[in-house]
Amino acid sequence: MSSDTRPTPTVEDYLGVIYTLARDQQPVIGRRLADWMEVSPPTVTATIQRMVRDGWVTMHADKTIHLTEAGRRAAASVVRRHMLTELLLARVLNVPWSRVHEEADQLEHDLSAETAARVAELLDDTAVCPHGNPLPGEENSVSSLRPLLEAIPGRSYLLARVHEEIERRGDLMSFFEEQGLIPGAALQLVALMPANETVTLRVKDREVTLGLVVARCLWVQEV
Ligand SMILES: [Zn+2]
Questions:
Q1: Which residue among 39, 46, 79, 220 is least enclosed by CB atoms within 10 Å?
Q2: Residue 133: what are its φ and ψ, rounded to 5°?
Q3: How far, in Å, is the centroid of ligand 1 from the Cα of 169?
Q4: Phi and psi of 193, rounded to 5°?
Q5: Rounded to whole angstroms, how far apart are CA atoms 196 and 211?
Q6: pLDDT tens digits in sequence order for the chain, 223 residues long
Q7: What CA–CA distance (Å, rounded) separates 51 from 150?
């Protein structure tokens, strides 16, 4: 198979996760992929072996996985199609915020390059997805955001970014939506309790408590 061919949907999903981990300078290893994609380590191993064979990735001696040039291009393409689809669903079709990631996961694989280009043309300001994550090439648009856990208690911020790693957790996204905790929401850090591994926020007139693992996936912008 030539690397110019479009990867299968499964391979596209792997490419997207590998791209995101590499963007964040995280080591790309099988276990990390298994956790993120909620599949077994042997499944990851089998898929990665096929991806090595087909020229999308290489595996180094230390078992880290690296995108080839063809893999990087295909990955950027699927991440971009995913995010443009999310924007289309959220802004044009008014699909609830908590649902757009899952819906886009189904549609992104069938979106043609032409349609993706039309979506980008139709919508202005397509630097970030509805979760605030940057489209490939737009990473600078999030570089000035502050991790929520580094926010100053009592100061006002806007929620700016919910990391890709938790976008796929539908129940959690529904909870965020119910609490009004979506990008653009005004919030204050009330208390950070490392011993309890929680953080309490004020969102509008109510307090919302999150675990530190989830809170680490959020970024804010100063008002
Ligand atoms: Zn998104």
A1: 46
A2: -85, 140
A3: 12
A4: -120, 85
A5: 9
A6: 444 578 999 999 999 999 999 999 999 999 999 999 999 999 999 999 999 999 999 999 999 999 999 999 999 999 999 999 999 999 999 999 999 999 999 899 889 889 999 999 999 889 999 999 999 999 999 999 999 999 999 999 999 999 999 999 999 999 999 999 999 999 999 999 989 999 999 998 899 999 999 999 999 999 9
A7: 38
Which residue segments constitute the domains of the chain, with CATH numbers given?
1-131 (1.10.10.10), 146-222 (2.30.30.90)
- Cα separation, 147 vs 215, in Å, equals 9
Q: Contact at 8 Å (CB) between 89 and 96?
A: no
In the reported structure, the alpha carbon of residue 109 is separated from the centroid of ligand 1 by a whole-number distance in angstroms of: 15
Distance (Å) from CA 135 to ligand 1 centroid: 9
Q: Which amino acid is at 148?
A: L
What is the 198 CA–ligand 1 centroid distance (Å)? 24
Q: How many whole angstroms from 61 Cα to the centroid of ligand 1?
A: 33
Element (H, E) at 190: strand 186-193
Q: Are 43 and 54 in contact (CB under 8 A)?
A: no
CB 128 within 8 A of CB 141: yes
Q: How far is CA 59 from the centre of its chain?
A: 23
The dihedral formed by the CA atoms of 126, 127, 129 and 135, expressed in degrees to the nearest 10: 110
Residue 62 Cα to ligand 1 midpoint, Å, equals 31
Nearest Cα to Cα of residue 20 among 119, 113, 142: 142
